[in-house]
Write a structure and sequence with these properties.
The complex is a heterodimer of chains A (284) and B (327). Chain A has 284 residues and is of the alpha/beta class. Chain A has eleven helices and ten strands. The longest helix of chain A is centred in the last third of the chain and has 14 residues. Chain A is globular, with a radius of gyration of 21 Å. Chain B is mainly α. Chain B contains 13 helices and no strands. In chain B, helix 4 crosses helix 6. Chain B is globular, with a radius of gyration of 26 Å. Chain B starts with 27 loop residues before the first helix and ends in a 10-residue tail after the last helix. Classes of the chains: A alpha/beta (284), B mainly alpha (327). Chains A and B meet through helix 4, strand 6 and helix 7 of A and helix 7 and helix 8 of B.
Amino acid sequence: MPPPVRRIVVDREPTVIQPRTDRAPAPAGNGALGHRGAGATRAAARPTRTAATRATERMRIESVWLAYGDRWVVRDVSLPVRQGEVLALIGASGSGKTTLLRALNRLTEITAGASRAGRVTLDGEDIESMEVTDLRRRVSMVFQQPNPFPMSIYQNIAYALGEEGSVRSRRGRRQDLRPQVIGGQQQRLCIARALAAGPDVLLLDEPCSALDPISTATIEQLIVGLRETVAVVIVTHNLQQAFRVADHVAFMHLGELVEYGTSEQVFDRPTQQRTREYMGGAFG
Amino acid sequence: MAAQPEALGPSAPTRSLGGQESISSWPLVDRLGYVLCWAAGIGLCLVTGAIVLYMLFKGASYLRPYLFVESPTGVPNQSKAGGFLDPIVGTLIITAIGVAVAAPAGVAIAAWLSEYGRPAWLARAVESGVEMIAGTPSIVLAIFGLLIFSQVFFGFLSQTSAEGHVYGKSFIAAGFMMSLLAIPLIAASTREGLAQIPSHVREASYALGKTKATTLRRVLLPSVRPNIASGVALGMGRIIGDTAIVVILLGATLRTEGVGNVPVLSTLRGTGSTLTNYVYSNSPTGEGNAPEKAYAAAFVLLVLVLVLNLVVTRLTSARSGAQAWTR
């Protein structure tokens, strides 16, 4: 028998779930950013946060060029990465954000044919001269897809710490994970795992793009809370998200760094025409 | 189409949602293919059912408890030819040796090919080597094995005659050659599993400052345990079912005969037989000509394979549930 064909009924009444008014993180829709200069609306859209107390520079990206084969994907980018604030990399697909992010813990090296020019330092030390496992322990990364390892939650964290854990705990708690632990929780586990070894810098590659809005809100609050203890760099396609979490924003286009500034400055008063166009296009 | 809105809801999937596709509207080729798919599936079920049922009735009717505890004797009279304890034990020993050698080797080959595989020409050579072995008839492997294991250098693995001639027939020799049957299956299945793990899982481990080796051992191999298991199960089937290597490299003697005095080692160095070989020699074609025992042994062989497969799958894939990243 052929499989049943699912049809979409056009004239069906849409199911509307009434929003709960007591939920804290209000969804920041386009409206919040749509009105330029509507400061009050904007403040409400942002999770409650205090201004960054102090920002110390941990990493410095100095005129970095990155190429896959003979194609340059990042051209001459210089940026500071500071602890105490969140740096968001925004830009269209193919603008080199993720490549730049991966260069910060030398994950680009595992791609065949990738090459790099320029200098990246961590606390003044060139990352090229560091032991790569050492560097990655200090500059940790979370990926787009939640990817807990096939072991228990406990074991996932212990793995990051480099502890073997007893066979008993491995067996006994294996069942903790999957399928009960779902998307958002998995991603939180991945963040916890990335933080377990106490890194200096946390790289987030579109950490929420595979998650639902509620999980996203939870993770965004987590990210904002983290900036005091680690320097956070987040790549995101979601401009609202960049606005909600970031202190500084870097806008990249076709491998070039077009604009870098505080979140307010880049979103409210972009100096570059390309930034304005990108924002305008995104917001309609 | 005009489906009624009230048709939707919890009961919707059980009702056909208008405009049901009818097979009569398909092109002739598709209709033929459709029927063929059904027929092939059902046909295979029938064949499987026939084999199992036939062996069940035929074999079980000749099955007697004494067959499991008595060693075979070389008497033409069926009622006095003894049981098949030795072939059962022989099968288990051969399978154990074969899997013990093939599993680590197969997994190692797969891991190297999929995670390292440099230089490329060497990887290609290894790949075609594995394919070559997979395609080689086991009788060829057996003859080659005899050539190798009857070298004086390997004399300690089997019996040596008074004149210093090495026979090259032993459980160890046969087990090693048997492992070659299983290695390609285990390697292929493990590789397939490794290839299905998305790269970001590896990268997540590297990003925690882990080396490639640690990632392989702690993250990747545990993830492909079900694949390794199915490879081992397939390989075990090949080993249990093979006769050529038994005849040439195990001696196909009626009883398990040890060489030397060391308890376990003497058996491993000695000759023996397996159930396949026992079935062959007791079938009307073989010299034993005890078809009733052949049927009983064939039945036991079938059950043994099924049970071993079940055990391996249970042991390794109980926790295999869908990985988080594949859902």
